[in-house]
Specification:
The structure holds 2 protein chains of 2 kinds. Chain A is of the alpha+beta class. Chain A has 10 helices and 8 strands.
């Protein structure tokens, strides 16, 4: 037999054997695909942000199809629309999702809050935090190195004038930045509703706060006394608004001497 | 026994596949951003390297017996590709967690030149079956060492102040060459160790 024919035969034989082997293997060892999970997965946004509490969109879809969870409203990025779609596929009752967006509760921009030290090191909030609570005078304020930017899957956060700012139109309320912020400055606020928000988390006494930041909450209680609905409380030298009770009347913002409580209508 | 240790250490240190022979540079630069993914990729490479050596050795014997050595490259590519596919199917069925963690890296290995390289170099060096297996295991471990080391370097670089013009791939290549140079320090180590 001529060597060329032999070469062709050998290569062809190996190819055919390998091909047949793979074909047999793919039939014998086929993994049954969960069709319900596939369908649910297609409805989900696919950002794998983990807002639902499962390991990404695949995890949530699998849990829903296996009946491990009956709540269709866990995907906050998808909103009520996705919840309704999931309910249609699974036959569960659709839960609604109140649209929310994250907001950074700090106004300690370069003009308002001075620095107490020159920080030269790893450009990361959690690292700077370990060195006297960051370079700013206020140890409660936004460091502005953007740990939240790095984790945001929707690219909604930017640093403006030394403080992180979240674009409410891009924010899908997955809550990853809330966990990433070492100062715990980020909260979820309902979208398209007028609410008062205290843009400060400073827990120092009033006189100290005054020295640290021009717009820091001094805990003067004026807002709490003015509020007719009991939505504003002062605890640990700082005010806090209960967004469920707040009607957005704006009276507290008028009396605030440092203008750290403001009316906010996210998404406008 | 001595020869096996010598082959193993040579493959890991002095003749490291990535840093001395410059094979498998694509995953070395592509998948080395995080230590975790680098480890996953390397483990998959070790697995496929050893397996493909075991399979291609008898095939090579068949080719040599028929005076068809020139078919080595094409046949090996064929076999390795089929093998990776098979491994993928088996893993998907019996070890879903491992499949999920290796996921996208397994198909990538199909075209990884380090795998083809180790198979061909085994033949060039005239290794027997056991020696070939040890050499491919060593090459895989060497790949793991290089990947994990370089992933560490890159993670450090993430947080360092790189000049604007060097940001991204340029500084990665510079770092890769420095890491590669550091492996020159192992030259002569194995020969003296087992002299």
């Amino acid at each position: 037999m001529s060597p060329i024919v032999l070469a062709v035969i050998i290569v062809a034989a190996i190819g055919i054997i390998a091909g047949l082997g793979l074909a047999v293997a793919s039939i014998v060892m086929a993994v049954p695909v969960d069709e319900t999970a596939e369908k649910i997965r297609e409805c989900l946004p696919g950002a794998n942000c983990g807002a639902c509490g499962f390991s990404g969109c695949d995890g949530y879809a699998a849990a829903l199809s296996k009946g491990e969870t009956t709540e269709t409203n866990l995907c906050s990025p998808g909103g009520s629309e996705v919840s309704a779609q999931i309910a249609e596929i699974t036959g569960l009752t659709a839960g609604s999702i109140e649209p929310k967006a994250a907001i950074v509760l700090c106004q300690g921009s370069c003009g308002n809050c001075d620095t107490k030290l020159e920080y030269e090191g790893v450009h990361s909030c959690s690292m700077a935090q370990q060195l006297f609570g960051g370079p700013k005078k206020c140890q409660y304020g936004c460091i502005g190195f953007g740990d939240c930017i790095n984790v945001c899957p929707y690219d909604a956060i930017k640093i403006c004038d030394g403080v992180a700012r979240i674009d409410p139109t891009m924010c899908r309320a997955c809550g990853i930045c809330i966990k990433a912020c070492p100062k715990h400055l980020i909260e979820l606020l309902p979208v398209h509703q007028r609410k008062a928000a205290v843009l400060c988390k400073n827990g120092d006494k009033g006189a100290m706060t005054r020295k640290e930041c021009k717009t820091g909450c001094i805990g003067c209680m004026k807002c709490a006394k003015t509020c007719e609905f009991g939505a504003v409380t002062v605890e640990g030298n700082k005010a806090h608004v209960d967004y469920d009770k707040c009607t957005g009347c704006g009276k507290c913002t008028e009396v605030c001497p440092v203008k750290c409580i403001t009316l906010i209508n996210l998404g406008e | 026994m001595k020869i096996f240790f010598s082959i193993l250490l040579t493959a890991i240190l002095t003749q490291n596949f990535v840093l001395a022979k410059f094979l498998g540079i694509c995953p070395f630069l592509g998948v080395s951003k995080k230590t975790k993914t680098a480890t996953g990729m390397s483990l998959a490479v070790i697995f496929v390297m050893v397996l493909s050596t075991a399979v291609t050795y008898p095939i090579n014997t068949l080719l040599v017996n028929n005076d068809l050595e020139y078919l080595q490259t094409i046949v090996f590519i064929l076999v390795i590709a089929a093998l990776v596919q098979l491994v993928e199917i088996v893993l998907k069925k019996y070890m879903p967690p491992l499949y999920n963690s290796l996921g996208i890296y397994l198909p990538l290995i199909t075209t990884n030149c380090a795998v083809l390289g180790v198979v061909l170099l085994n033949i060039d060096n005239g290794y027997g079956f056991a020696e070939s297996m040890v050499n491919s295991l060593g090459a895989g471990i060497g790949f793991l060492v290089a990947m994990v080391m370089f992933a560490g370097v890159r993670e450090r670089m993430e947080s360092s102040d790189v000049p604007e013009s060097l940001k991204g791939l340029p500084i990665t290549l510079v770092a890769a060459s420095l890491v590669s140079m550091s492996f020159l320090g192992f030259a002569g180590l194995v020969e003296n160790l087992f002299a």
